[in-house]
Design goal:
The two termini are 31 Å apart. Helix 1 packs parallel to helix 2, helix 1 crosses helix 5 and helix 5 packs antiparallel against helix 6. The chain has eight helices and 17 strands. It has two domains: 224 residues, FAD/NAD(P)-binding domain; 102 residues, D-Amino Acid Oxidase, subunit A, domain 2 (D-Amino Acid Oxidase, Chain A, domain 2, 2-Layer Sandwich). The relative contact order is 0.16. By secondary structure, the chain is α/β, with parallel strands linked by helices.
């Protein structure tokens, strides 16, 4: 049985990005995923304020460039100017896969990991799949998304995770290609809606909810929302192909490392609570994790892995706590149109840059150099 420097469980966004970084560092890495097709997604697009150069991505991953977002309550709206992207998840994953160094990184599909075994010393020894096959590594990474295959077993995340769930259609778009649209209020049934423009007069129309009691009716509720004036004037539904997915709604977590186990991405809820967009934040966390892993292997010292937690806390913890507070307040207010109208009126008094920072989830301290 081969022993790898790093065994990554999950070949989603976090796993592939981390594998690419470890390949650059010439670390012998194995990526395991239960899927047969890594380009099969529940959601195909997302909005982001990402700086692509920070993460060695090209503009080929961009589905549409935006220079403004329009926020709607029942009776008011606020236009926020600023550069953002609608990203194509398939193109991001293709670009990451193409950039992974095959001399150092191997990917095995249709492998369903169920647990990790331990040494007597307490360190993790092998990843074991449902067929009993074992995969040996010096360091293990849980990048299994909201499933949290290992993070939930070891107690880094609750076994039952609250989720925000959404459904979306690719529709004909009748608005401006440079404008994104976000809707919230009682008429959106305790949830929120979005329109992300694409190329060729197409757009993604989505509806999500924080309320698990209405998840089963999500598609029917989206059809109802299609008849609301603000949405009806912007899109025309011309097909019945619906996509769906979820993001975690956990408390803010700041513990990602146990012994030689490192967790990245949705396995430890690294989606920003207010932005609802994970890629920018997950990529940055994966960069931090890759540096800590490389240092730990170089110095043969597992305690160096915790520098990943330290840097993440410095960079994000205050921002995430503020965002979680805003998220919970938004949940409460979203069911009351008077309160949402009031918030929108207050938003008209805030500066453009202030609202953009809130939407992007950036409240905290600037990046700093970190010694590993």
């Amino acid at each position: 049985m081969n022993t790898y420097d790093v065994v990554i469980i999950g070949a989603g966004t976090a796993g592939l990005f981390l594998a690419r970084e470890l390949g650059k560092m010439k670390r012998k890495t194995l990526v395991l995923d239960r899927k047969a097709n890594l380009l099969d997604f529940s959601f195909n697009t997302l909005s982001s304020f990402i700086n692509l150069k920070d993460f060695d991505l090209t503009e080929d991953v961009v589905a549409q460039k935006l220079d403004r977002a329009i926020l709607y309550s029942k009776n008011f709206k606020r236009t926020v100017k600023g550069k953002a992207y609608i990203l194509d998840k398939g193109k991001i994953h293709k670009e990451l896969l193409a950039a992974i160094d095959p001399d150092y990184v191997s990917i095995q599909l249709q492998v369903n990991i169920k647990e990790l075994s331990k040494h007597q010393t307490g360190e993790f020894k092998t990843a074991i799949d449902k067929k009993g096959k074992q995969y040996s590594g010096k360091i293990f990474v849980d990048a299994s998304g909201t499933n949290g295959i290992i993070s939930k077993q070891v107690g880094l995340q609750n076994k039952k995770t609250k989720l925000a769930t959404g459904v979306e259609y690719n529709v004909k778009y009748q608005g401006q290609p440079n404008e994104g649209h976000l809707f919230i209020g009682k008429q959106y049934q305790g949830g929120y809606a979005w329109i992300f423009p694409l190329q060729n007069q197409r757009a993604i129309l989505g509806f999500g909810t924080f309320d698990n009691s209405i998840v089963k009716d999500l598609k029917a509720r989206l059809h109802t929302i299609l008849e609301l004036p603000n949405i009806k004037k912007l899109v025309l539904k011309d097909n019945d192909i619906a996509k769906g997915g979820s993001i975690p709604l956990t408390p803010v977590l700041d513990k990602f490392v146990i012994e030689n186990l490192v967790c990245v991405g949705d396995s430890v809820s690294q989606v920003n609570p207010i932005a609802g967009e994970g890629y920018k934040f997950i990529f940055e966390a994966a960069q931090m994790a890759s540096k800590a892993i490389d240092t730990s292997l170089n110095k043969n010292d597992l305690t160096k892995l915790t520098s990943y937690e330290s840097e993440w806390k410095y960079r994000f913890l205050l921002s995430y706590k503020r965002a979680k507070y805003s998220q919970l307040k938004l949940f409460r207010y979203s069911k009351n149109d008077i309160l949402m109208d009031f918030l929108m009126l207050m938003a008209k008094l805030r500066s453009n840059s202030s609202i953009q920072k809130s939407l992007s989830g950036e409240f905290s301290k600037p990046k700093k150099s970190h010694t590993y």
